[in-house]
Amino acid sequence: MSRNRGRIAVPGHLVAQAVAAATARLARRHPSIEHDLVHSAVYQAAVELVCTVTDPDRLAPLLERRGHARLLAMTGAPLAITVARHRR
Predict the structure, then answer these.
(1) Residues 6+ apart with CB under 8 A from 19
(2) What would the pLDDT profile of 7-49 be if each residue is shown by its tens digit?
(3) Are 45 and 67 in contact (CB under 8 A)?
């Protein structure tokens, strides 16, 4: 993953679209969690990712993955920590 040395590399409107889309998908996936809490989890993940992710196409799946992990942790569900294998 490319690093951008602390600057926001993904335009704000694309970040907002990715947050909205991830929030909608995760709200459907976790219907027992309030929509505001789902949005909060995704927004927190976005704040962490915008300074390190330079590719807008990579941001959306990472947001959803981190948001989902946060929501599982909030509900007390066990979460396996794994390392993704990178394709070359």
Answers:
(1) 39, 42, 43, 46, 63
(2) 557 888 889 999 999 999 999 999 999 999 999 999 999 998 8
(3) yes
